[in-house]
What we know:
Blueprint: H1 6-10, H2 18-32, H3 41-57, H4 60-69, H5 76-94, H6 102-110, E1 131-138, E2 146-152, E3 155-161, E4 170-173, E5 189-196, E6 202-204, E7 207-215, H7 216-221, E8 223-229, E9 232-238, E10 247-250, E11 267-274, H8 281-295
Parallel strand pairs: 1-5, 7-11
Antiparallel strand pairs: 2-3, 4-5, 6-7, 8-9, 10-11
Amino acid sequence: MAFIDYYKILGVNKDASSAEIKKAYRKLARKYHPDISPNDPQAEQKFKEINEANEVLSNSENRKKYDKYGKDWQHSEAFEQANRQNQQNTRQQYSGGFSEGGYSDFFESMFGGSGFSGGRSGGVKFRGEDYHAELELNLKDVYTTHKRTLTVNGKNIRLTIPAGVENGQVIKINGYGGKGVNGGPNGDLHITFNIKNHSGFKLSNTNLYTTAELDLYTALLGGTTIINSFTGQVKLTVKPETQNGTQVKLKGKGFPVYKKEGQFGDLFVTYHITMPTNLTSKEKELFTELSKLRSS
């Protein structure tokens, strides 16, 4: 397998910090994501390389192995074990117990050969590496449970994303990581959710917060106003003499509770009273009379 320079793929130096690697990966992933360039095979290949590089360099242990062993980093444990075996065989040589085939037999057993001399056979099994991917979604996307296809290392993985999943939350999909060596188990896929909020609502835990503008007359005399929610428009009854900053709660109109079907937080609405402008002479006259009534 040819050597792949993961640092070069991400455009960072070998002494780059974890934050620099993460920043470079996000920038390139957005640029070459298949959803942005669906008909560009070069972009798709580039996206695969970027993900592969990030999976290695974003993991401190894998990065150490890669820096030391290059393209063979996934078999670092095998090399270390082989080195110990070689040292042991060397000691045996000086003590009269050296087997010429010891070192090569070890590597044959490690990577699919006939096994140790003396009739032992079969390779050492190694678990595949874990893959790490990031999925960017809008807040509205995770208001309801839905399915989505994620492409990781050229494989399309169909996911069911539960409603209420949180920003930064990580889920693990067993067996969708790197392939095991010599029949070892596959690694796992870890998906981090990056959720953007462009909804106009503020989210805190499972509660949503928004504001509603009230004109002076509705605030004073009472009436109705219409607000938006995730499930559509809601008509609110405004009590007479409502004060600026008054907050009302709409129970169950908030965000869904993760993996608790039918449970929702609340929606809190804060009223902002807008003052009338460009008053006519008659309006000014009436407000003047009103102020005299209030002061008498």
